[in-house]
Amino acid sequence: MAANPLNRFRNAWNAFMGRDPTEKYLEYGLYGGSYQRPDRTQLSYGNDKSIITAIYNRISLDVSQISMRHVNVDENNQYLETRKSGLNDCLTLSANLDQTGRAFIQDVVMSMFDEGCVAVVPTDTDVNPKNTDGYDILSLRTGKIVEWFPHHVKVEVYNENTGKKEKILCEKRSTAIIENPFYAIMNEPNSVLRRLIRKLVLLDAVDEQSSAGKLDLIIQLPYTIKGETRRKQAEERRDNIEKQLAGSKYGIAYADATERITQLNRPIENNLMKQIEYLTNLLYGQLGISETILNGTADEQTMLNYFSNTIEPILSAIVDEFKRKFLSKTARTQGQSIMYFREPFKLAPVKNIAEVSEKFITNRVLTSNEVRGVLGYKPADDANADQLLNPNIDTMENAENAEPEPDLEEQLE
């Protein structure tokens, strides 16, 4: 949306202020300080204390590596060009004061996995979204939905002006609400992931109990303990052994020849590890990932399946909601859209890049300079390098259309 910079400055709107952000809000200076980054995503439900964090981080990192752009498309919904807009800057360069575009998308996916549903709030726009649908977004923030209403949601969003998270009421029509495509697997109360988390908590409790430093001894005394006097003698004998162990440099105590001491802190066999391994493999299968993806040793076919079954549904959920809420009906009619693009050579081994590049060029999909740009080389100065030409066919056609050279005898004559 083209606008006069002066008008944009006058009509700018902020979600926290509900008014012109150029008005005096806080005195300039250092305020709202914190020893930790306050806008960082804080995982809940025990997710930050288990292996689930590794899965969240791997998927969110892979999603953030896919480029999202605000683009123009033709009548067939084919990409034409990238638009120069504030929304495109948020997706590709800087989403807000604290996050780049890639860090913002990773934050969106992490929060979506943790909460099941996340809100993306346009905190700064050139005009008030309540007055018009034709506005440009200048900054975006990820927020936690704390309360639902028919046409509004109450969202907890980080306010960069105060350095604190605040609850604001947002309209659903101008707030992107993204639900986890794997909600039934990851966020339902009795889902596979929640069951795995509970098993991991139990395993941690058993480990803490076994490593608490207790000896768990049973002392068999040479007399029966039925009366009060014998019971007191047994208590005194136990206290005596405890004092010996605590006061000894190497933890050594003595016992009478008629006494028998039995140690109980041997490892207790349970099937927790088997259940955890079963639930982990089940979760991997339902999410479409594997251990090779997490440790970075997956082959090309595994990564393609991972992208199709795991990454693509998440990307589509984000892009479709952004397109639905951040682009008006008029903008969509004019050919505006939000699309994601994946690097074609990203999964190709080095030995196959030449073969893949040749196929793209000979089939007139990419020009030579476009392939050089993907590989990180500067454009060539040749004029044909910017044209969709097949070097093999076009060279033969040029050779056939060229005039034949005169014979040597004719030249001599």
Q: How much of the residues is beta strand, in percent?
A: 15-25%
Order of helices and strands: HEHEEHHEEEEEHHEHEHHHHEHHHH
The N- to C-terminal Cα distance equals: 71 Å
Radius of gyration: 33 Å
Helical residues, percent = 40-55%
Q: Average pLDDT value?
A: 83
Number of helices, where a helix is a run of at least 4 consecutive DSSP H or I residues: 15
Shape: elongated
How many strands in all? 11
Q: Could you describe the largest sheet, including whether it forms a barrel?
A: 6 strands, antiparallel
Derived structural class: alpha+beta
Low-confidence stretches: 24-29
Any descriptors?
alpha+beta; 15 helices; 11 strands; three-stranded antiparallel β-sheet; 413 residues
Summarize the structure in words.
- This protein has 413 residues and is an alpha+beta fold.
- Among the domains are: 5-186, no CATH class; 348-399, no CATH class.
- The chain is built from 15 helices and eleven strands.
- The chain has helices at 5-11, 52-64, 86-92, 101-115, 183-186, 192-210, 228-247, 272-287, 291-294, 300-326, 329-333, 350-362, 368-375, 391-401, 408-412, and strands at 13-14, 67-73, 79-82, 117-125, 137-148, 152-159, 164-171, 176-179, 217-220, 260-263, 336-341.
- The strands form three sheets. Strands 1, 4, 5, 6, 7 and 8 form a six-stranded antiparallel beta sheet that branches. The protein has a three-stranded antiparallel beta sheet with strand order 3-2-11.
- Helix 2 (52-64) runs antiparallel to helix 4 (101-115), helix 3 (86-92) crosses helix 4 (101-115) and helix 6 (192-210) runs antiparallel to helix 8 (272-287).
